[in-house]
Structures are given as structure tokens and as C-alpha cells.
């Protein structure tokens, strides 16, 4: 559906994307995780052709690129980017915004009432946007994407300014979009939230995808023990830890359990429990843990 090949861009001396490659399919939600200023927005801007890469290509549906205006129009019929709150029209109501997006991309606004209901906006959607709180504006921006209903959606900081209830509501809508076969990119600093709906999370570092965590496949199970750095170094003098173990962000020891027999697994659990009893869990690594591994 969407193929990124060898995307590179640099500003002055700073390399932001460096020969980045990615294939993405319909029905996928791809989380993009990286610290501030790494290149998430730049990546989205290149996918949407708001920014030209220094080299590389964005290919849609196996054949369309931004080589000419005709193909750009074709691509943009199927792609939306998350509106910025500052781009909302103060004097227009939420309904006006939704109808605008619906008719621009969809040619009809018949589904707008269903979007309003789904996002529980009925009590405010007829008021002018200038009267909305931050969270109300953010929900409207998301609703506009739902109204546009395109196949590819690029969502930058979609959860910004939302309270817990609204984060849950939007997460639910993202899961619905996946069921409907959309391809959704979500750049977010709410890392645990990505675990709820992303099929995979890519971690950007120094212009490249330094790690891709897939949630759809069998994931490696780890014995995870919280321990400070002096306990970790002391432990290493007492027992030989498996070569593949990780010590993440100076606080989390992770011992892979895959390939071990049940009795070996139990032995590791007993050993770590007897030495450092508290805060021990068994399970796969989540987005937070990989983030700490690569960026801490
Ligand atoms: N037009 C531009 N001119 C010069 N530098 C730019 C431009 N656009 C982006 N950059 C630089 O590129 C880098 C990546 O910026 P980008 O906005 O893509 O990061 P981000 O990962 O989206 O950050 P955040 O999490 O803060 O939104 C930053 O160092 C930024 O200063």
C-alpha cells in the first residue's frame, strides 16, 4: 500500500532521515516513537509531500509517486494528515469543519452525525470552534479525519491535551479504523497507549529505524526485574547472566525465557526472587521498555 524507499533529508548539517525504508499495508496501525526533534513530523511531511526529501521515494499502491501533479492529486484523495489546532476556523462550528472534511474527501457528509456520536461531541459540536477547550479542539481534529475517512491517515500527536477518558475513546476509534482496513500512522509520546492498538511500533534514531517492534507476532518473553545499577553489577559477579540479557536504562534487568526449559525458567525466577525479591514480572517488552533501551 505504501512504500518508503531510501528516504533521506538533512537540514543544514543535521541529518534527519538517513536512507529510511518502510513497507506498510492496509489494516495496519504503525506507531512512531522517538524523542522530540528526531524526525517524526518530517517523515509524515514527506509521506504527504509537504516536504521534499533530498533523495528517496514515496510509492502508493505500488505505482503512484509524487512525480507529477496528477499523481499527487490521486494520492491525496486517499490520504489525510492530522489537522493542527491552529488551523481550525474560529468562526465555524465543529459540524461545519466535519462537513467540510467529509465533502472534500468523501463527496458526502451523510456519515457526519455518526462521527459526532462516536466521539461524543453532540453537546458542543454546533458551537463555534473559538469557544472550545484544548481537548474539545483535539477531538474535533480527530473527528475531521474520521469524516474524511481516507485509506491512509497520518496522525501526529493525536492524543495531545486529551484526558484519560478521551484517550480511551480515540484509542477505540483507532481500533475500529484498523478493522475497516485503514493504514494509520500514529506519532506519539504516549508510549503505553501505543501498545493498545499498534500492530508495530518503529523507533527512529539518527535518521533510521533503529528497531521495529511487532505486536502481531509471537514476542520474546522476558523475566524482568527492577534493580539499581549497583545490584546489577553485584549480581553479575555472583551468577553468569545469559549473553542475550539486557539491562535497560539502568533499572531493568531482562532475561530472555525463550529456548529455556520450564525447569530452567523456574530456576531463573527463583534465583532472582531470592536475591532481589520485589518487582519481578514475566512477559514481553512493551513500547516503553524499548524506548528506554534505545533513548535512555
Ligand atoms: N524546515 C526546517 N528547517 C530546518 N530544520 C528543520 C525544519 N523542519 C524540521 N527541522 C529539524 O528537523 C528535526 C526533526 O524535526 P521534527 O519536527 O520532524 O521532529 P519530531 O520528531 O516530529 O519532534 P517532536 O516530537 O518535537 O514533534 C529537528 O531538529 C528540527 O529542528
Low-confidence stretches: none
Just name the CATH architecture of the largest domain.
Answer: 3-Layer(aba) Sandwich
Indicate the CATH topology of the largest domain. Rossmann fold
What does the main sheet amount to? 6 strands, mixed
Beginning-to-end CA distance, first to last residue: 33 Å
How is this structure best described in words?
The protein is α/β, with parallel strands linked by helices. It folds into 2 domains: 2-214, Rossmann fold; 222-295. It contains 10 helices and 13 strands. It has helices spanning 40-47, 69-76, 94-106, 112-118, 134-148, 164-179, 191-197, 229-238, 262-275, 287-295, and strands at residues 2-11, 14-24, 28-33, 55-60, 79-81, 152-156, 183-187, 200-205, 208-214, 222-226, 246-248, 252-256, 280-283. The protein has a 6-stranded mixed beta sheet, with helices on both faces. Helix 3 (94-106) runs parallel beside helix 5. The protein is globular, with a radius of gyration of 22 Å. The two termini are 33 Å apart. 31% of the residues are buried. Residues 11, 14, 16, 34, 36-42 line the site of adenosine-5'-triphosphate. Keywords: ATP-binding, Nucleotide-binding, Transport. GO terms for molecular function: ATP binding. This is ABC transporter ATP-binding protein.
